[in-house]
Design brief:
The chain has 71 residues and is mainly alpha-helical. The chain is 83% helix and 0% strand. It is elongated and about 65 Å long.
Amino acid sequence: MQVTDIVSMVANVGFPVTLCFILIKYVLQNVDEKLSKMEDSLQNLAQEIQRLDESNTEIKPTNHAKQHQAK
């Protein structure tokens, strides 16, 4: 977004509305980046689970998982 676009928006819709648009654009960009990273992590996790399943490797619970089950 160029400065001239921002000035034009302020002139047309007002300062608070313009700030809302800018904030929404910023938040949506950040959420998109985070969701992309999460999607990559989930794909890697699914591949690792499939690899473990194919190799018939027993998955042993970690200490954290044992503590969580005890609750």
